[in-house]
TrEMBL record, chain A:
Family that this chain belongs to: Belongs to the binding-protein-dependent transport system permease family.
TM ranges: 12-33, 71-96, 108-129, 141-163, 184-209, 240-261
Residues in ABC transmembrane type-1 domain copies: 72-262
Gene3D superfamilies on file: MetI-like
Pfam families: BPD_transp_1 (PF00528)
Family annotation (CDD domains): TM_PBP2
Record keyword Transport present: yes
Subcellular location per the Swiss-Prot or TrEMBL entry: Cell membrane
One BP term from GO: transmembrane transport
Organism: Leisingera aquaemixtae
Membrane topology according to the record: Multi-pass membrane protein
Name of the featured protein: Inner membrane ABC transporter permease protein YcjP
TrEMBL record, chain B:
Keyword Metal-binding: no
Membrane topology recorded in Swiss-Prot or TrEMBL: Multi-pass membrane protein
Name by which UniProt lists this protein: Lactose transport system permease protein LacF
Residues passing through the membrane, by range: 43-68, 102-125, 137-154, 189-209, 242-268, 288-310
Organism: Leisingera aquaemixtae
Length: 276, 319
């Protein structure tokens, strides 16, 4: 059925798509470029696009002055910790829902999803108060717990979707051979589920890394991750464009790279399987 | 247990490549397995269920509790029960209706922009071209930028009236640069948030569009249907469910956008959304009772949207 498409039309599509793509990407590109300029070039009039004296100075200044490394470390611990903890809790739950479903499985899944819809601001004060009472305010462990809880429904859903695609007869065969439930999970399901778990991990690290309500409201100096670090950079009047750009580039680069790897899982993960 | 094959017409999604039919009966056998397995399954589910139940019930109960109290931690503390006073005061305060308006305008604006541009972009990216993978990567990128970074970059490097890139563009055309975040504050927020969410809409719509049967389109083309009609009668109906999903999911996230406003206008110049208003009542003016009543309103609002989303997702579980 393939129809010959004129290469003229293909060229037109290509030009248009690249134009739009570059336009959408431009703010990121501009930020990256500006991070290599001097502060004077960053605000020069007219703006310079490529032909400036490339410098790495901003990166070292940001690192020295603001202790960027500490914020980065906090981000890694909070995003990584909450995701790993969430997966440890979600794997057994998703496993049991996918392989030993009961009448209530669907209701439980939907209910879990509904907790994700709770607007954060609606429970801001209770969480804030509990954090003070429990001494969790401005601690990494506190944020690990909160971000784990807000992402747990997504983690369960993603894992459930992946587990359901594992053929059941393999489990049957294992049972015939006398595998116990524990062995079944440990030696058969887990290895088969590794790709699914990996993409769940990836997407949730991204979500936790970029989370900017709880991380801004529950941290001060000690546990603040990169979201809060960047927010503190609100210096107006364009004196620090190059440094702001360097800090921004460092904050988004790791996640941009991870994100590009996870674009496929993004759709089913973020729509809870409603679009695959 | 569901099979992937029932009701193909009702399904938006392309069935995942060849789900082995044999697996379904096997899983059903498994389901009727031993009592032991069921008990174990319940135990395995317990931690996640208990944690989420606690995460939902404890703060929710506290918010409800505070919403019926006059509670000012910095000015006298707990001043007793006040019934529905906070609910009435929250709605009758002068800031309430503007905040509802700001919320509706921002959410509606972003939805309109992302859905319309998302459909167009998805159609464009579905055409044959060179380097589609790279273009896709470029378009998706904004979604991975943390909200505080995108807000700050737009605010300083693009919307700054003196040094911002947009100011340079305006001057190049001889126009007076716009003071974006004061003169066109709502539009600026809509622009920033749309930039962040367009990739999401595009990605989901592209996934849906790729499951469209291209032979149907070709047949329509051979029958002489012009592109506009092909779009209106074939592509758009096919996308309707994906569009609904995009709208619902985005609405839930957009209702609670925070960092974009926190970093740019701090709620000034008519950008104080419901979320931001509640945030100010709770953390800035420390009027917990009033803020909690607002929180309850926000929860009810989000739930109304959520019900529709859950219905679609639930249907898909059955399919």
């Amino acid at each position: 059925m393939a129809r010959a498409i004129t290469s003229q039309r293909k060229a037109l599509n290509t030009a248009l798509a690249w134009g739009v793509g570059l336009l959408i990407f431009f703010p990121i590109l501009w930020t990256i470029l500006t991070s290599f300029k001097t502060e004077a070039q960053a605000i020069s009039d007219p703006p310079v696009f490529l032909f400036f004296d490339w410098t790495l100075e901003n990166y070292s200044v940001v690192q020295e002055r603001s202790n960027y490394g500490r914020f980065l470390w906090n981000s890694i611990i909070i995003a990584g910790g909450s995701t790993i903890l969430g997966i440890i809790i979600a794997v057994p739950a998703a496993w049991s829902m996918a392989f030993v479903p009961s009448k209530r499985t669907k209701d439980i899944l939907l209910w879990m999803l509904s907790t994700k819809m709770l607007p954060a601001v609606g429970v801001l004060y209770p969480i804030y108060l509990l954090f003070i009472k429990l001494g969790l305010l401005d601690t990494k462990i506190g944020l690990v717990i909160v971000l784990m809880l807000i992402n747990l429904p997504i983690i369960v859903w993603m894992l459930y979707t992946y587990f359901k695609e594992i053929p059941g007869e393999i489990l049957e065969a294992a049972r015939m051979d006398g595998a116990t439930l524990r062995e079944e999970v440990l030696y058969i399901l887990t290895p088969m589920a590794i790709p699914g778990i990996a993409s769940t991990l990836l997407l949730n690290v991204i979500l936790a890394w970029n989370e900017a309500f709880w991380t801004l409201n529950l941290t001060a100096a000690k546990a603040a991750p990169l979201t809060a670090f960047i927010a503190s950079y609100s210096s107006p009047e364009g004196l620090f464009y190059a440094k702001l750009s360097a800090a921004s580039t460092m904050a988004i680069a790791p996640i941009l790279i991870l994100g590009w790897f996870s674009q496929k899982q993004l759709v089913s993960g973020l729509t809870f399987g409603a679009v695959k | 247990m569901a099979t992937q094959h029932s009701q193909p017409a009702d399904r938006l999604t392309m069935a995942p490549p060849a789900p082995k039919p044999a697996s379904q009966p096997a899983a059903a056998d498994h389901q009727s397995g031993t009592k032991h397995a069921r008990t174990a399954a319940r135990l395995m589910m317990a931690p996640a269920v208990i944690l989420l139940l606690g995460w939902m019930l404890v703060p929710l109960t506290m918010t409800l509790y505070f919403s019926f109290k006059k509670f000012l931690p910095l000015r006298g503390g707990d001043l007793g029960w006040v019934g529905f006073d906070n609910y009435v005061r929250f709605v009758s305060s002068s800031a309430f209706w503007p905040s509802v308006q700001a919320t509706l305008v921002i959410v509606g604006g972003v939805l309109a922009i992302t859905v319309v541009l998302g459909v167009l972009l998805a159609i464009l990216l579905n055409q044959p071209m060179w380097g589609r993978g790279v273009v896709r990567i470029l378009v998706i990128a904004p979604f991975f930028v943390m909200p505080t970074v995108s807000a700050l970059v737009w605010k300083n490097m693009f919307m700054d009236p003196v040094n911002g890139l947009l100011a340079h563009v305006w001057r190049a055309f001889g126009a007076e640069p716009l003071v974006w975040l004061t003169e066109a504050s709502t539009q600026s927020i809509i622009l920033i948030v749309s930039w962040q969410w367009l990739p999401f809409a595009m990605l989901i719509l592209l996934t849906a569009i790729q499951s469209l049967d291209s032979e149907q389109l070709e047949a329509a083309e051979m029958d002489g249907a012009p592109p506009v009609k092909r779009f209106a009668y074939i592509t758009l109906p096919h996308l309707s469910r994906a569009i609904t999903v995009v709208v619902l999911i985005q609405t839930i996230f957009l209702l609670s956008i925070f960092a974009e406003i926190f970093v740019t206008t701090q709620g000034a110049f008519g950008t104080k959304t419901l979320t931001y208003l509640i945030f100010q009542r709770v953390l800035e003016s420390q009027n917990i009772g009033l803020g909690s009543a607002g929180g309850v309103y926000a929860i009810i609002l989000a739930n109304i949207v959520a019900i529709f989303l859950m219905r679609i997702v639930g249907k898909n579980l059955d399919a």
